[in-house]
Amino acid sequence: MDLISARARFEAIQDRICQALGEADNQSFVTDQWSSKLGVGKSRVTASGEVLEKGGVMFSHVKGAALPPAATVKRPQLAGKPFEAMGVSLVIHPHNPYIPTSHANVRLFVADPESDQPTWWVGGGFDLTPYYGFDEDCQHWHQSAKDLCDGFDTKLYPEFKRWCDEYFYLKHRDEPRGIGGLFFDDFNALGFEQSLAFVEAVAQGYLDAYLPIIERRKDMGYGEREKAWQKYRRGRYVEFNLVYDRGTIFGLQSGGRTESILVSMPPEVSWSYCYEPEAGSPEAKLTSYYLQPREWV
Amino acid sequence: MDLISARARFEAIQDRICQALGEADNQSFVTDQWSSKLGVGKSRVTASGEVLEKGGVMFSHVKGAALPPAATVKRPQLAGKPFEAMGVSLVIHPHNPYIPTSHANVRLFVADPESDQPTWWVGGGFDLTPYYGFDEDCQHWHQSAKDLCDGFDTKLYPEFKRWCDEYFYLKHRDEPRGIGGLFFDDFNALGFEQSLAFVEAVAQGYLDAYLPIIERRKDMGYGEREKAWQKYRRGRYVEFNLVYDRGTIFGLQSGGRTESILVSMPPEVSWSYCYEPEAGSPEAKLTSYYLQPREWV
Question: Could you read off the pLDDT of A143-195 as tens digits, one per residue?
């Protein structure tokens, strides 16, 4: 298992994504290298571009002496073993409320990396959080997800789509975070080389899914009403990430780099007591129609 | 143990606080009664008043068939017993960044209320979260806390002040949430009647501590810079409440009324990657001087 070349492949994923999003935004991402006792990272962030209000595409590579039990629920025999983890995680918050917020993540986990038989798996996925729904965007997003999965195994999309719907769910709101996409973890069924190829395909699939939506929506006009709705709905994003997201909570509790973890927070957010959009409005349709369990392809 | 009259005393606390804050704000709180299978509540909220941008003063009275282990860390023998809990909890977010955000809470917990010997305790406190610091406000806040405690026992203030500093702490920021105040729990040392009287004194002490600060700061001029700083710092408030606050997390996980629990969220919030205020500025002094372990009286 060649972890040095695996790392180069993750760094290349980060480069490709920043290149593509930076072109769409007409502004480059700024790079911030960091290191700590946990490992090293390269945080690439952007703010106030033409299209993106705030965005972060973070690479990190960490090592630890003892795998925490929370990271190994499915593999309790690995708790306490040394481990190595690397990955790319991103959240993109556009200015225009008609462009959804997007999130993607790819990662490789290796337990007992120095042993003869290290245990490894990959995880990740991508999901979309619209403020205003458009059927063609939802269909295109899920079609891109399905196409990339089908290139490896047609069983993957239905499984990873369902997993995504289950994971990105705000129990206290009885509401999904968005319209889903892909989520997978503990995945090694394809073997090491093909799993890394799958992870690369997920990253490329994210761009294939998201960039056309940016293009279609970026010139749509909006005003205070749409911006207020976006800020209100971003509150749900904050609630999910701080209350439920395992990566965020584990990162904060384990002494990860706070600013890199919380780059996912939206730039401007509002909360309003018992706010309900007017019945029949496009805002009400977001929850009544788009944020419902649905097969988009 | 007369829980009916105890409840009346908590409802009276809510009334007095809403009356006093409503007068300071020149606008009444709006009342929202609710009931669920857990119990009943009266949420009193305000928004866009003269002084208050958003505020909620919530009474609730809930009963449960089985005390969750999280509520009884110090009394494991009570886990699984029926229980009854009532209390008032409030968070006040003023418009003016020179007026701090404030929080107060008083509550009574009774385990096994139908038995011959129910176990009961009170808890609560109040704490202050400034955006700009003023020594006289911090001293007045803590002097009010000390005065009310000293009326019962001079040992209480130092203990409850330290507990407050420990509790309202953001580990991932290595930063206290504010300048503290009082925090207590599992408290029954004064006996039932005097404990309720103490809880009433805490509520009155909160008003004695906060209202003069509102008066002193409400006419201070501010502009975009101060508002932007307030919105940025409110992000810390969100982080604390969603990541650490036991009441919030327990409420959301146990199926409490989401809008009443999250009325604590600030109205307008922002996050900005790696933001640092200019060295030597009043904004920088907040963390370098005010948010440091300190005896204010």
Answer: 999 999 999 999 999 999 999 999 999 999 999 999 999 999 999 999 999 99
Residue B77: is its pLDDT beyond 90?
no
Question: What is the model's pLDDT at position A24?
Answer: 97
- Using the beta-carbon criterion (under 8 Å), do B56 and A269 form an inter-chain contact? no
A221 burial via Cβ count (<10 Å: 0-12, 13-18, 19+): exposed
User: Chain-centre distance of CA A114, in angstroms?
Assistant: 30
Count of C-beta atoms within a 10 Å radius of residue A77? 9
Average pLDDT, chain B: 95
Taking every pair of Cα atoms in chain B, the longest distance, rounded to a whole number of angstroms, is 62
Beta bridge partners of B89: B58, B105
Distance CA B213, CA A260 (A): 36
* B157/B152 Cα distance (integer angstroms): 10
- What value of ipTM does the predicted structure carry? 0.94
Residue of B nearest to A46 (CA): B273
pLDDT at residue B202 tops 70? yes
Taking CA atoms, B71 is separated from A85, A89, B68, B74, B186, in Å, by 35, 35, 6, 8, 10
- Closest to A11 measured CA to CA, from A28, A26, A27, A33: A33
pLDDT of B84 over the 90 cut = yes
Catalytic residue check, A103: yes
Distance CA B206, CA B100 (A): 13
Name the residue of chain A whose CA is nearest to B255's CA.
Answer: A172
Please tell me whether residue B95 adopts helix, strand or coil conformation: coil
Q: What is the pLDDT of residue A203?
A: 98
In this prediction, residues A107-118 reach a mean pLDDT of 91
Whole-number Å distance between alpha carbons of B7 and B29: 20
C-alpha to C-alpha distance for A234 and A226, rounded to whole angstroms: 12
Do the bridges between strand B180-187 and strand B119-129 make them parallel or antiparallel, or are there none, so unpaired?
Answer: antiparallel
pLDDT tier at B59, thresholds 50, 70, 90: very high
- Interface of B to A at Cβ within 8 Å reads 32, 43, 45, 47, 54, 56, 171-173, 231, 235, 238-239, 242-243, 249, 252-253, 255, 258-259, 261-263, 265-274
Q: Which two tokens stand for residue A16?
A: 């490709």
Q: What residues contact residue B225 under an 8 Å CB cut-off, 6+ apart?
A: none
CA angle B277, A242, B49 (to 5 degrees): 65
| Residues of chain B contacting residue A274, judged by C-beta atoms under 8 Å apart | 32, 259
d(CA A36, CA A129): 32
